[in-house]
Design a protein that fits this description.
Blueprint lengths: L1 E12 L4 E7 L12 E5 L11 E9 L2 E7 L9 E8 L11 E7 L9 H7 L3 E7 L15 E4 L12 H7 L2 E6 L4 H16 L7 E4 L15 E4 L2 E4 H4 L2 E3 L12
Parallel strand pairs: 7-8, 7-10, 8-9, 10-11
Antiparallel strand pairs: 1-2, 1-6, 2-5, 3-4, 3-6, 4-5, 11-14, 12-13
């Protein structure tokens, strides 16, 4: 974990909701991999450990990190950002992959997007399912090679067309949910996948946990998670955890 300053070199308006911030960063941060993130603080923020925001990279180009942020936030070229990183561990992909399913439920799929260039570059088919409020995420800027599936609004927000086929062919699944009640929503999705697939093997379905991170190093113990084998620290051991091994509401099966 290293504290340094990043400089905004370019701002690109992707659509009415999304902007991409191109950051010039320390060389150590350009080794960021899918799943890892930065803790950012804007200049002028008063000291408060909870003010750091978790920034997710969506790509790395020529030694610069591309960050996705809402258009409602204001930035300018040359602005300096205080960052801590790298936070967390890369996503763990199986060595033999053909199809990967990315699911966003009541949250933008931003934490999952950096996986796409890597997966497509390795000839792996990618399907993204957007459920709940994630259906409003504008996907026009994403590569045409990925399949985008939007969930239904009523009566069940966790329903989409051809569910059984989508879940059945996926070799691995990575899920991001809203940050209001992550455990409940991960539990709901795990139960739905079990209904569709009968049994979920280990290392198949990963939840991307995004708690507030006061330190990002595990020292404050504010982001502890209970697993079947003990306690883990989300910031250093995560963000992605095998949902079959996390203690979730209604997840009693082994």
């Amino acid at each position: 974990m290293k504290e340094t300053e990043a400089s905004i070199e370019r701002i690109e308006e992707i659509n009415t909701d999304i902007q991409h911030i191109q950051l010039a960063v320390d060389d150590s941060l350009t080794r960021i991999k899918p799943g890892q993130s930065l803790l950012a603080r804007l200049p002028g923020d008063r000291w408060d450990p909870y003010l750091r925001e978790r920034w997710w990279a969506v790509n790395v180009r020529a030694g610069q990190i591309i960050i996705e942020r809402p258009m409602s936030e204001n930035y300018h070229i040359g602005q300096l950002i205080n960052v801590l990183g790298l936070v967390g561990q890369p996503y763990r992909f199986r060595r033999t992959l053909r199809n990967v399913l990315l699911v966003a439920y009541d949250a933008p799929p931003t934490p999952l997007l950096m996986t796409i260039p890597w997966l497509l570059g390795n000839k792996i088919q990618v399907t993204m399912v957007l459920l709940g409020s994630a259906r409003d995420y504008n996907t026009a800027h994403l590569p045409a090679e990925i399949e985008i599936v939007h969930g239904m609004d009523d009566p069940d927000p966790m329903t989409w067309d051809n569910q059984v086929m989508t879940v059945g062919w996926a070799d691995q699944v990575f899920v991001a949910v809203g940050d209001v009640d992550e455990a409940r929503q991960f539990g709901q999705l795990l139960r739905r996948f079990r209904e569709l697939r009968a049994e979920i093997p280990k290392q198949y379905m990963f939840g991307v946990f995004r708690p507030i991170l006061p330190c990002g190093t595990g020292a404050c113990q504010a982001c502890l998670l209970s697993t079947r084998e003990g306690i883990v620290v989300s910031c250093t051991d995560g963000p992605a955890f095998d949902l079959t091994q996390i203690v979730l509401p209604g997840n009693s099966r082994r």
